[in-house]
Structure formats: structure tokens, C-alpha cells
Amino acid sequence: MNRFDALLQPDRGQPAHVITIVAPAGYESWLGTQPARIRAILSAQRFAGKAGSHAVIPGEGEDWSVVAAVEDATSPWALAALPKALPPGSYRAEVPAAAGLGWLLGQYRFGRYHKAEDAGDRVLLIRDPAAIPELLRLAGATAQVRDLVNTPTQDLGPAELEAAAEALARRHGAAVTVRRGDELEQGYPMIHAVGRAATRERAPRLIELRWGAPTDPAVAIIGKGVCFDTGGLDIKPSSGMRLMKKDMGGAAHALALAELVMGAKLPVRLHLLIPAVENAISGDAFRPGDVLRSRKGLTVENTNTDAEGRLILGDALTRAGEEKPELILDFATLTGAARVALGPDLPPLFTDDAALAAELLAAGEALHDPLWRLPLWDGYDEMLKSDIADLVNAPDGGFAGAITAALFLRRFVPEKTAWAHLDVFAWRPAAKPGRSKGGDAFGLRAAWHVLKTRYAAASGVPERSQT
């Protein structure tokens, strides 16, 4: 577990190593204002002001300082490379408080299966102490996503997702209800069909958490919880199965966002839903060509057992809609087509609500947590037609795969309900400063900022600083 609490402290003038930030474009001008000794030290270290580089400048006695070249000092990742490069100690830098997030996440480690490399703390002193609690919450939520996604399926199946929801509920006084195994067959038949081939210990389940006052506006957060995806009888090749421990990344995002909502005591009536399954192969596995009934009553011809995520989300979306929420957000590692279109870093956003889209996109841009809106193109709805059922789960041909998956989900969302679907990858193929290779959160901070802004403002609760 990553503990960030001690790593951000208010700057009260206590001893610390100074980090001087320089912009690459202005480095030569800055260098010209420095004493000859400083120029010589930087030259000896071959420091040329390249973005992402740093140099150490000896001072008097045991004192020393740091010069760091940063392309965008307003980014939360401005200082993120430094904690791994610098020794334990305290540091101060003239940067916006938001940079504290990267400082914290630059010290993230997933150490469940091997010894941590370096347990020493790198502490950043910041001048805005009011920003610290929010930064700690955001770092903790991001680390929670990373930890859950990084954990292999042997230690994180549907039961462990249930346990994570129970632990979350205990922390915040929420209530959890769970339907498991054959209990799902009547009320949630698509969740049951997808998960029924797994062992009894990994039986499918629908996890629901409720929190908040009955009089507060209702918000539903849904996360796809496919703890491992073999592809079912339409089995994936080994290369496609390698990272399928991360197919519960949507559930990880949903749990983390719920933690943020409850931790900040946002005045909403929260309904968290996680359909948790393992898409396994056995004699009881659902088959290509089967017609599945859904909680909504629609029938679905299963044209691809590897398009299982949208099936379990369909039942969860229907259940969420029965509570008449004013807003539904769902997170899912849903389609490879989204990765082909936008790559791993940029999650597609789907919504018919122009105001909600604008809020999410603006928050993503402001917070360096980008989203990209793709259309719910009505003309592609006909691709979901079936000859024997109300719709198919995966059209033939593969055209517009991310869009048709979102259109499938839309069939289960109540009309006139604000809804947004984020097709997240939940995985970082290569490390970046503050963002280690492996599981990661995408769109989480943008979604949280929208919820915080909408509901804190509506209730009169002061909005916390934008971080």
C-alpha cells in the first residue's frame, strides 16, 4: 500500500533543498544571469536545459540545490520525475500546488510481489496548505486504480472486488448488497450468462453500494468488472490474453471515483454498481449464437463471446436507471477499437448530453487528464440489428467498434438521463514521469472535477481548488 500522507507538507520555512524551475526555451537567458561558479557546475554535468533533465548544485557545507528543466510548470507532472532521481529529504519549488500530485505519484510503487527498492520519503513543501487534502485524495484514488489493475487475477477475482467494495463501504458508512451466482439468472441474466462458466469461488455477482441522503440528487457510477477475459469460446490468442487481468479496470475507476465522492462528503445519493465476472471457458460457457435475455427485457443475439463487457454493463445500466438518477457515468475497458482509434492515453468519451460533454472535456484539458469525444452516431444503430433477436452484441465487420459498443450500451440507458461512457484502457504500456508502466487511471480526475463542480456548487459547499 502506498502512503502519501507525509509526502506533502505546508511550507513554513523549514530546511529544505530548493528546486529551481527553468523553461527550456528560456534556459540560455536564465543561465546568463547566473554566477560563473553555477555555469561551470551545470556545464560539468552537461546540463543544457532539456525538458525533463535536472542538475544538482552544491552549496555551503552539506547544503545543495536542484535545477530542473520543465516544459510546462503548470502541469501536475512538472516535478514528477524528480522523486525517483533525488535522495530522500525535503524540497521546495515555486510551482502551482497541482504539481504536488505528480510529486506524490512519482513515488508510487506496486510492491505486493517484490521488495520495494527505496523506502525513503521525498517531501515537497508547498505554500498552499489548503490544497494538500485534495491532492492526497487524488493520489490515493489513482494509486487505488493502479493497485487493483496491477494485481493478477489469482489474487483479484469477483470475490476480491466484492471485498474491495465492502472495505470502501466500511470506511464511509455505506451499504453494500451483492447478488451472486444463480441468484442472477432471473434478474440479471446477461451478467449470469457471461460469468457462469467460472468456478464457484469465482461466481459472477452484481455489487451495489449506496451512500448519501435520500433527498440528495442521485448519481450512478458503474464499472466493468471482468476480472479476467479469456474471450470465452471465441477465445483470444495468447498475446491478446496476456494483459486481461486489467479487464476489471473500469471497476477500479468506479471504486476510486466513489471513494473521492464519499471522502469529500459530496452531497449526492451515490449508487455504485460493479458487475463482476470472469469470462471463463467450461462446458457451461455461453456460446456464439445464443440469444440472451436482459434485465431490460431486450433480447441479445450473442455474436461474439469476447464482447462480454457490454453485456454485463447492459444489465447494470438497467439497474442503475431504475433508481432514476440524474446522472450515470460508466467506466469500462470495453474495446480494442478505441485503442486503435486513439491509442492508450486518450479515452473516448461518449454522451448525447452536450453540456456534460463540454464539462468533461474542459476538465480533462485543464487537469491534464484528457478525453476525446467520439459520436454516438445514430446511423450505425442499424449495425446492431439481429435477424432473430432485438439486437446483436457485436456487429460483423468490425467497423466503428468503439461507437457500436457505446450504441449498444445506450439501449439500456433510460431516455432523458444524462449519461457518459468512458472507454478507458486502464494500462500504461510505457512509463512517463509520475505514471509508471502498468495499471493507471484515465479520465478519473476529469470525472471527479465535474461531479465536484456540479454538486458542490449546487449545494453551496465551497468547491475545492482545481488539482
TrEMBL record:
Entry-linked CDD domains: Peptidase_M17 (cd00433)
InterPro entries reported for this sequence: Leucine_aapep/pepB, Macro_dom-like, Peptidase_M17_C, Peptidase_M17_N_1
One MF annotation (Gene Ontology) recorded for this entry: metalloaminopeptidase activity
Domain of life, per lineage: Bacteria
Cytosol aminopeptidase domain mapped to chain residues: 304-311
Keywords: Aminopeptidase, Hydrolase, Manganese, Protease
GO cellular component: cytoplasm
Single Gene Ontology BP annotation: proteolysis
Family named by the database record: Belongs to the peptidase M17 family.
Protein name, per record: Leucyl aminopeptidase
Record organism: Sphingomonas metalli
